[in-house]
Structures are given as structure tokens and as C-alpha cells.
């Protein structure tokens, strides 16, 4: 499937890579189909930014990353009923991402640990949820990313 994107131009996305989010992203309920775009080499380090590209609106792409890259002990409490539409979730088919908010001062860049995106990789269904824990909406990540890159030798 051809996708026209603001950030990457026209790209090919395999149909089986499309993630359906029945309720969309918070603030964007009408956007329900997404593709995860990332650099395959950097993805192996799990500390790089990826893009959750809307397939419904080419101008919309959310920067996302693995929460474990910046908060290794991230383990939110979630109301199980919120995840039922995704199908059976197990460790091997559950993919969790958090949105990144870039700041003019890179040291102020943050991730939203309060509203992760949960994806069932088997069903290709996802949802953004609000966790029950007291995680912050703006968790600054500069030091954690810097430490991760140093550890990886980048």
C-alpha cells in the first residue's frame, strides 16, 4: 500500500503492518490506522525515536519510543477491560510505546508515561490508554537517552 506522508514522502507500507486503533489516539479519535516507521538498525538498540504515522491523515505522525529505554522499571497498572479489544495479550505479542514531546531545549524533551500505546502484534490492534499509576505526562528523557547511547557506544 502506498502512503503519502509529510515527513517521509511517499512510502510503501505492507498491508499486514497496519495497526488499527479503534478509538484512535487521544485527541485524534478519527485517526484509526497507523504504521510504525523506524530505522531497522537503530530499532535494535531500543532507545531511538520512531514514528507512528497515520494512514488516514498524511500530515500526522507521532514520535514514539520504547518506555524501557528511558525508564527500565516502567510497569504501569492498567484496567484489563481497556485492553480486551486488542485480543489476548502475552509478553511475546505485547508492544508498548510512549509518545515523545520534543522541546526547543533538548534537555526538556519528554515522554508521556501516563498514556502509553499498547499494541497486540498478533492482531495488529492497538490503543492508547491512561494508566492508573502516578506516572508523569512529561517525563524528561535527556539524561536517560544520553546514558543509553554511551552504553551502546554511539
Describe this structure in words.
- This protein is α+β, with helices and mostly antiparallel strands and 154 residues long.
- It has one domain: BH3618-like (Roll), CATH 2.30.290.
- The chain is built from three helices and eleven strands; from the N terminus they run ββββαββαβββββα.
- Strands 3, 4, 5, 6, 7, 8, 9, 10 and 11 form a nine-stranded antiparallel sheet that branches. The chain has a two-stranded antiparallel sheet with strand order 1-2.
- A hairpin with a 4-residue loop joins strand 9 and strand 10.
- The radius of gyration is 15 Å and the shape is globular.
- The chain starts with a strand and ends with a helix.
- 22% of the residues are buried.
- The mean pLDDT is 89.
